[in-house]
């Protein structure tokens, strides 16, 4: 029996989302209907709204979400009605070489980037036709239908708002440290950009035992948040601040690891200058489509520095989501403190305005 859901829809025009009803069809074979509990408001949604990334429209936005399984389609065995699940914004196909190699984050068989389910369709529609779920999840909606491999069961005692964050920012930020960079205890690190994802990088560095942990942001409010999560030093970026010199002072010549968590070409280009000899720069922030950066190639080569890309924290959702949930439940990841605003779906446009102004750590939509 199909149902309606209130959802935040991007029509491809303007920078505000339309809050309106969409139709949600029953889950097909291998699919799961999820009643959403919470959806975070992430920087990647903003890239889409602001026209930096292009997708089929209309799109139900949101890709950082958690909820409760309401119903399952034929053949589903991983989850059952009543289970708490965190949604993964790519669904591993479980057949390609990357999946077989345990690198599900690099899956080449998924159609999540096209906002399509495995059979090339969606379960969402409105009176004009097909509606697309962003990254095949579309979490800013009361209901979502996702492939079984995108719904990862987690303990029911995990609060929904916290669970939603594990669906993107936490996995992306902590995973960049633990899976991609594999930062060893005692290494020095700098984090450029301390929004929801950057603060998750700080948390990952604390977990890894990095020292010192230097947070860089233009906003003093974000730097205060970074200190509360365990950054040992902060540098306020802005005209007249030489960030590289400040980092060199604090680390005795440059950091072992530097994370860019904004997605701006200008700050990406500064990464090599923040690093010590043989240091590793990690690209976590995602720039607009087609962006190109210039780096001093001789300096990079001579000093043996490395730049690595990091997407979704190199995560395998079925492995990493339960691990991160376990760390939270054991008191090792202060995820509640990351949530600065709990909002209703209707308030989502204000959350994006605050994100553009850099004034909130993380807004989370909580569904009734
Ligand atoms: N120097 C330092 N900090 C800056 C600068 C700058 N020039 N410009 C912006 N910032 C800071 C902002 O103040 C903010 O704290 O970068 C942070 C960006 O955070 P959010 O907008 O909250 O974005 P977030 O959700 O954390 O995502 C960051 O990671 O996964 C990607 O697509 C995502 O590209 C996005 C990035
Ligand atoms: Zn995200």
UniProtKB/TrEMBL annotation:
Cofactor(s) needed: Zn(2+)
Entry GO CC: cytosol
Gene Ontology molecular-function annotations: S-(hydroxymethyl)glutathione dehydrogenase [NAD(P)+] activity; zinc ion binding
InterPro entries, alphabetized: ADH-like_C (IPR013149), ADH-like_N (IPR013154), ADH_Zn_CS (IPR002328), ER (IPR020843), GroES-like_sf (IPR011032), NAD(P)-bd_dom_sf (IPR036291)
GO biological process: formaldehyde catabolic process
Gene3D superfamilies: Medium-chain alcohol dehydrogenases, catalytic domain, NAD(P)-binding Rossmann-like Domain
Family per record: Belongs to the zinc-containing alcohol dehydrogenase family.
Name of this protein: S-(Hydroxymethyl)glutathione dehydrogenase / alcohol dehydrogenase
Lineage: Bacteria, Bacillati, Actinomycetota, Actinomycetes, Streptosporangiales
């Amino acid at each position: 029996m199909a149902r309606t859901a209130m959802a935040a829809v991007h029509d491809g025009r303007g920078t505000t989302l339309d809050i309106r009803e969409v139709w949600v069809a029953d889950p097909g074979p291998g699919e799961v209907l999820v009643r959403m509990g919470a959806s975070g408001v992430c920087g990647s949604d903003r890239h889409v709204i602001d026209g930096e990334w292009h997708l089929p429209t209309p799109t139900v936005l949101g890709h950082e979400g958690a909820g409760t399984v309401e119903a399952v389609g034929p053949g589903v065995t991983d989850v059952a009605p009543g289970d708490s699940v965190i949604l993964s914004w790519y669904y591993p196909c479980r057949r390609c070489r990357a999946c077989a190699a345990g690198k599900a984050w690099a899956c080449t068989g998924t159609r999540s980037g096209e906002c399509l389910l495995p059979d090339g369709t969606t379960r969402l529609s409105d009176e004009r036709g097909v509606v697309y779920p962003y990254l095949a999840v579309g979490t800013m909606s009361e209901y979502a239908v996702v492939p079984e491999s995108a719904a990862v069961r987690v303990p029911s005692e995990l609060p929904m708002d916290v669970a939603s964050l594990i669906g993107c920012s936490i996995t992306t930020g902590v995973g960049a440290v633990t899976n991609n960079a594999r930062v060893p205890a005692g290494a020095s690190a700098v984090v450029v950009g301390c929004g929801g994802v950057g603060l998750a990088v700080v948390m990952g560095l604390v977990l890894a035992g990095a020292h010192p942990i230097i947070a860089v942001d233009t906003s003093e409010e974000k730097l205060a948040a970074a200190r509360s999560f365990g950054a040992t030093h902060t540098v306020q970026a802005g005209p007249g601040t030489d960030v590289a010199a400040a980092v060199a002072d604090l680390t005795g010549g440059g950091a072992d690891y530097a994370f860019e968590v904004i997605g701006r070409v200008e700050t990406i280009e500064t990464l090599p200058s923040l690093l010590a000899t043989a240091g590793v720069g990690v690209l976590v922030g995602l720039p607009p489509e087609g962006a190109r950066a210039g780096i001093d190639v001789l300096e990079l080569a001579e000093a043996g520095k490395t730049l690595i890309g990091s997407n979704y924290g190199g995560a395998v959702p079925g492995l990493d989501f339960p691990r991160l949930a376990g760390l939270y439940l054991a008191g090792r990841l202060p995820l509640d403190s990351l949530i600065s605003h709990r909002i209703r779906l209707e308030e989502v446009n204000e959350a994006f305005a605050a994100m553009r102004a850099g004034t909130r750590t993380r807004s989370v939509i909580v569904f009734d």
